Amino acid sequence: MALHLYNTMSSRIEEFRPLRDNEVRMYACGPTVYDYGHIGNFRTFVAVDLFRRFLRQSGYQVRHVMNITDVDDRIIRNAARDGVTVQQYTAKYEKVFLEDAALIGIEQPTLVRATEHIPEMADFVARLVEKGVAYRTEDGSYYFRIAEFPAYGKLSKKDFSGMLDGARVDVDNYDKDSARDFALWKSPKPGETWWDTAIGPGRPGWHLECSVMSMEELGESFDLHAGGEDLIFPHHENEIAQSESLTGKPFAHFWFHARFLLVEGEKMSKSLGNFFTLRDLVLKGHKPSSIRYLLTSVPYRNQLNFTFDGLKQAAVSVERLRNFRLRLSASNFTAGASAQMQSLASETIEKMRAALDDDLNTALAQAAIFEMVRQTNAAFDTGGVKKDDVGPLLAALAKFDEVFAVLDDNDVLKMKQVLDWAGAEGREKDVSRELREAVESGLSDADIEKKIAGMRAARGARDFQASDRLRAELIAAGITVEITKDGIRWRRK
Ligand code: AMP
Ligand code: ZN
Q1: Which of 81, 265, 316, 344 is deepest in the core (most CB within 10 A)?
Q2: Coil, strand or helix at 227
Q3: What pLDDT shows up at residue 173?
Q4: Residues with CB under 6 A from ligand 1
Q5: Strands (E), 300-456
Q6: Is the per-residue pLDDT at 175 higher than 80?
Q7: pLDDT averaged over the chain?
Q8: Percentage helix, strand, coil, to 5, in the chain?
């Protein structure tokens, strides 16, 4: 089966094919850098990261662009509160976002910043005015006239035919019942940051930003546009109206929306105050790999209810997979191959692919790898796994990890970074005993010996990649490893 994805535009699952050959051009709405992101935000970012990784595994070249919203109402308000410039303020939170994204194993997309595209945005507004779909108000702001775009509502499936022509809204986010002409460009208010441009002084609205930068990077029509489900209206609806009015062409072909992460049945959000940041969870002693695994354990189109029990379960799952990989790399097997193990490995790869091809059913893909672990562990005990089975079984694990990215053990290193950050920010009181112990003890001697045995076995089998991987894990945990002609030695730094 080829890749099938749900398209919010058609409300159906469709076969996903890029517009141009083998290249997928996708744009994901990124963070507004006004504060630490919460794990709800990261559910969406991780879902897009997993999709990108799966596209690559499926043989596509991926151009993945993400914006950084570095000017908006909240940023301006918070920068003024802290007595710093907007640039100083956003630089801090952009860095925080990128560190968090790395913490949770997100591969970095091409980043585009709103404040670096102001002249292009002004030009876009001027062209909309020329087309007669945008207008200037007395104070020098510009609005998009939604009555000029008859397809308005096609993404959110809302009938706006009875709406009030000319009623306006200048906040960036508003609900469906108040569909209005929306602000493209906001004239300066006292104390606000503004730019002097060809259409006058002011700053761009949020929706305009994404239309301009996505088309600049990816062309007028591109393959896929992604974000969390709250972006369907008004953000993406407005992006479509602006972009298609200007070009007369379909904007994005697929619309990909991740459903919310909930806490006790409610959307996790800053405004409700029911949120955890990634660092909050690491401060409590949870591993980044457990958080990533948990966020991918429910398919992106189902809501995910966050619980600490779920997080503990995720940690157990990752540990089982890591131990299994180590056991495969480090054990001695009798020569030969078992037809049963060989077909188990290849069937697992097929099952994982079929699950992900089916609108990214991550839960089924995880179930497939665990079934392989279960059957192989049972065969271990009866001598049913042979030397030549190890390669194919490891290959299935590697396929899994190309997409899920949780097997390499670099948690201690990442947890240490969070511990250091807590020290630098004066947040020692939030550091749990569990985090301190995890960082201080790092790996136990027995853990280290297991990895060293794995290295010896891998080198014996001339699998230098596997050996290097284990060595990197040891180094990440602060262990010095020396490979000498007499064998492998280790010591704690
Ligand atoms: P923001 O920084 O507020 O613009 O949000 C960044 C991304 O996180 C957007 O794609 C949102 O749709 C998404 N998002 C916000 N809250 C949640 C949540 N509780 N669950 C999943 N995604 C969310
Ligand atoms: Zn956007």
Answers
A1: 344
A2: strand
A3: 79
A4: 29, 31-32, 40-41, 43-44, 227-228, 230-231, 258, 260-261, 267-269
A5: 304-306
A6: no
A7: 94
A8: 50, 20, 30
| Closest C-alpha to 29, from 47, 15, 54 | 47
Q: What is the pLDDT of residues 248-301, one digit of tens each?
A: 999 999 999 999 999 988 999 988 999 999 999 999 999 999 999 999 999 999
Distances from the Cα of 86 to the Cαs of 32, 173, 194, 202, 418, in angstroms?
A: 12, 20, 11, 15, 25
Complete edge-to-edge strand list for the sheet that includes strand 23-28: 110-113, 61-68, 23-28, 222-228, 252-258
Q: Report which ligand 1 atom has the smallest distance to the Cα of 226.
A: 10
Q: At what angle do helices 390-404 and 362-381 cross, to 10 degrees?
A: 150
Closest protein CA for atom 14 of ligand 1: 41
Q: What pTM was computed for the model?
A: 0.93
Per-residue pLDDT, 177: 62
Structure tokens at 483: 């490979």
Tokens, residue 247: 């070009």
HEC-encoded secondary structure of 445-486: HHHHHHHHHHHHHHHHCCCHHHHHHHHHHHHHCCEEEEEECC
**Backbone dihedral region of 420: left (phi > 0), alpha (psi from -120 to 50 degrees) or beta?**
alpha
DSSP state string for 27-96 = EE---B-SSPPBHHHHHHHHHHHHHHHHHHHTT-EEEEEEEEB--SHHHHHHHHHHT--HHHHHHHHHHH
What pLDDT is attached to residue 178? 63
Cβ–Cβ < 8 Å for 283, 422:
yes
User: Closest Cα to atom 2, ligand 1: which residue?
Assistant: 31
- Per the CB < 8 A criterion, the answer to whether 23 and 32 are in contact is no
Q: Are 22 and 61 in contact (CB under 8 A)?
A: yes
Radius of gyration of the chain (CA): 25
Residue bearing tokens 């089924």: 364
State whether residue 335 is helix, strand or coil. Answer: coil
Model confidence pLDDT, tens digit, residues 82-110: 999 999 999 999 999 999 999 999 999 99
